[in-house]
Amino acid sequence: MCGIVGVISQAPVNQLIYDALLLLQHRGQDAAGIVTMQGNKCFMHKARGMVRDVFRTRNMRALPGTVGLGQVRYPTAGNAYNEEEAQPFYVNAPFGLVLVHNGNLTNAHALKKELFDIDRRHINTESDTEVLINVVAHELERVARDLPLTPEAVFKAVSAVHKRIKGSYAVIALIAGHGLLAFRDPHGIRPLCFGQSADGEFMVASESVALEGTGHKLTRDVAPGEALFIDTQGRVHTQQCAENPMLNPCMFEFVYLARPDSVMDGISVYQARLNMGETLAQRLISTMPPSDIDVVIPIPESSRPSAMQLAHKIGKPYREGFVKNRYVGRTFIMPGQGARKKSVRQKLNAIGLEFKGRNVLLVDDSIVRGTTSKEIVQMAREAGANKVYLASAAPPVRFPNVYGIDMPTKEELIAHGRSIEEVRQYIGADALIYQDVDAMKRVVAALKPGLSGFEASCFDGNYITGDVSAEDFATMREQRQSQAEEEDGPARTRLALQSGQEP
């Protein structure tokens, strides 16, 4: 899960891309990057860290041009500590190509070998985005060899890309001297939309909030399998480039990842979370008497709409019982389990007045590893709660995710192989209520008539691309262990420096 944006304008775009990335910061806090083009020359700056830390005045001045793109990174493939794997990625042929990508290629390792053995292209990192840009570059080179690069040729190249790569991908690329290209995987797993400003400026981004927050009007979402090409004259060309496209957006976007003020594939994220709260209330009523509950308290921030609707449905007061430190990153997307656990109490503080002597129902958007939930339940008890119940607006997360969310091994998931009672005991709650999978799908799908379904593999184990095997999970487990070892070194060094010791 990353945030991506691309702009084509008649005015400098560096500040505009910066502003859009701030609006997408929730989608990735590990690294950020911007590239701009002036004529046929690229200017790039990328580094680890938050947008506000990566880009200083001197960096912004070094990004001239009226075309550009940017990305905030949340690593699900490769090394979280390797700045070379921060996006955008660049290749100099054909034309000069720069690309950002949100998602995860499930056949990246097979493609890497294919690129070396057949296409004669070398991949220098473990990032699947480098694999992707080289596949795109190779296919563009094939269609444009000794010929001008027309929109039809671009769409032909994208069609060939769809046939070669598997998994989830929302892509924005700049082709030097030609324009901006954006396309989405045939299942539409990761989001992508585009819009226009009053003065004719075009923007493509992961979420509608990036457009609206920068003065652009949302035109529509890029359809699954569709390619959008905006040439240097500002003319928009679109074409369906996949053989059997079918919209299956990621359910976890609506549960947690997206901002509530975004609209994705015609579905209001806020309304989806309200609907989840209503069905969660029905689930709770069938599980325990609401009379046992004194107050409903959300665990900030994504759970608030669901918690409000649940409280309304069961007729109990809704209260804000936790204060969030907004200067600490989202714990779910922090690399390393140790960093997550340490940051929970830095991130949240309980208001004792709302807990003391009460039976409280805490509502969270989801429970993934259980580490955060366990800490928060304990915080509620320490704040004086009589009983602590916990409700999850999402069903149990039982299966690994391979499409760009940081849930790659079943061993890390608290609900995998455990009963709800066993999870409850681990977390330490007096009761644990989960959302129902089918109910969740039904109430979110109701907001988009004709929707074919959702990518909800972490809840139901159904991998819609049909190419995920047990061997893939074994490979991912090995990569995960290797990455954890690589991450442990920098983490240990930082801890030693903070304590004044030798690393």
UniProtKB/TrEMBL annotation:
It holds the Pfam family Pribosyltran. In the C-terminal section; belongs to the purine/pyrimidine phosphoribosyltransferase family. Pathway: Purine metabolism; IMP biosynthesis via de novo pathway; N(1)-(5-phospho-D-ribosyl)glycinamide from 5-phospho-alpha-D-ribose 1-diphosphate: step 1/2. Residues 2-233 form the Glutamine amidotransferase type-2 domain. NCBIfam families: purF. Mg(2+) binds at residues 302, 364-365. Keywords: Glutamine amidotransferase, Glycosyltransferase, Magnesium, Metal-binding, Purine biosynthesis, Transferase. It catalyses: 5-phospho-beta-D-ribosylamine + L-glutamate + diphosphate = 5-phospho-alpha-D-ribose 1-diphosphate + L-glutamine + H2O. Binds 1 Mg(2+) ion per subunit. Its cofactor is Mg(2+). Residues 476-503 are annotated as: Disordered. The active site is at 2 (nucleophile). Its EC number is 2.4.2.14. This is Amidophosphoribosyltransferase.
